Amino acid sequence: MKIRILSIALILGSLSFLSAQDMYLPVSTTSKAAKAAYIKGIQATDSADLPTFYEAMNTALKSDPDFFMAYAYLAIAETSFTQYEKAAPHIKSALAIDATGLNKGELILRKALQTLDKDPKADVAKFMASLTDAYPNNAQAYGLAAISASWISKDPQASVKYTQQVIELRPEFGGSYNTLGYNYMALGEMEKAKAAFDKYLELSPNEPNAYDSMGEYYMVAKDYARSAEYYDKAAKMGMELAEERAEKAREAMKAAGN
Q: 183-213: string of b/e by CB count within 10 Å (b at 16+)?
């Protein structure tokens, strides 16, 4: 399972030299329980744990039904996965919240959601650029912009630029290198992709997603034996989907006569 929107969140595990302000975008909720659940959901994306992400965001909304950022993240997540029908109710709920209580970043994202409400396939790149301009030292802002560039705007080059900004702020966060690797693959820059995935493995050797991503790299590179090897490792570490991917790599290896 790749860190797609997952990086969108990008939070922001363990860099002690970043303040909370620099790690997380400000939110307008006053509910401590809602904010705690929201942060748990964002942190789940560090290891591509989508079930926890969704569960935590929904828990946050139970604590505060007017939590704009929780709706915004769910909307962007579903839009990134082209699940437009699932994104729509989150967009409607976010836009129904009184805008007078929202902060600067939330108002920028509100404009993005208004655009997506009119056209689910719209490009919201200008709003993500505004978000990073408004929070130039905030890793979450760049991470959200990176995922939007990659999966909504379909602009891997822009996503690389934003991801490199995240890495400047969080050089020890493996998930950024995962995002970087997939963008380089999309650009056909396989050597840079390999270097990024190597760095992800170096920083996150206990995350099955790191091995799964390397498995996909080798699958794209048509080195099916090594692909199966990395997928098997991810599967042994608990990533169930990697087992199926390992079998596909072995099938490809047989079809290639290896």
A: bbbbeebeebbbebbebbbebbeebbbbbbb
Which tokens sit at 114? 């208004």
Choice between 258 and 37, residue whose per-residue pLDDT is larger: 37
Task: Copy the structure tokens of residue 35.
Answer: 């904010």
Q: Which tokens sit at 126?
A: 């200008």
Structure tokens at 214: 């390397």
Residue type, 2: K
Question: What CA–CA distance (Å, rounded) separates 40 from 134?
Answer: 24
Q: Band of the pLDDT at 257, cuts 50, 70, 90? A: confident
The rounded distance, in Å, linking the Cα atoms of 136 and 131 is 8
**What percent of the chain has a predicted confidence (pLDDT) above 90?**
83
DSSP state of 92: H
Rounded Cα distance between 147 and 190, Å, is 20
Rounded CA-CA distance 244/115 in Å is 38
Is the pLDDT assigned to residue 9 strictly greater than 80?
no
